[in-house]
Each structure stands twice: as C-alpha cells, then as structure tokens.
Structure prediction request, 87 residues.
Amino acid sequence: MTQPDGPGEGHEVDEAADRETAARRRRGALLNHFIAYFAAMIVLIPVNFLTTPGYAWFVFPLVLWGAPLAIHTAFAMGLFDGWRRGG
Prediction:
C-alpha cells in the first residue's frame, strides 16, 4: 500500500479497504448460508422420500429458502450497493 501524497487521498484508500473488508464479510456470510442450505436439503430430501414417497414436500423448503438465498447472493455480489447509497 502506498502512502497518500496529498490531503484527501488517504481517505480514499481507507474507503476502498473498508469496502473490500465489507465485501469479504458478505461473501463469508453467504458461504455459511449456502452450507446451511445444502446441509438441510441433503437431510430433507431423503427424509421426504423415506417418510412420504408419494408426496414431494421437500420442494417447499427448497424454494422458500432458495429465494432468500438468491437475494443474499445478489447482496453479496454487490448488486444492491448503488441502491443502498441512493444512486
């Protein structure tokens, strides 16, 4: 990292580092969310077919949890950054 040459340049470097730290934190939280989602689905699908093979109820948690996961993915990718800043 280089030293700021003039006034205001250090602030820009700090903001970039803060944004990168926030993005890294969002990606970590998303990874935890994906792990929990897939672990739950790995359990729910066999339970469904062992208990009620004629009715595929596992689809409901798959979709109802998958939708917020998709929104979380978009947030972690930074697709909502402009919206959050008002521009």
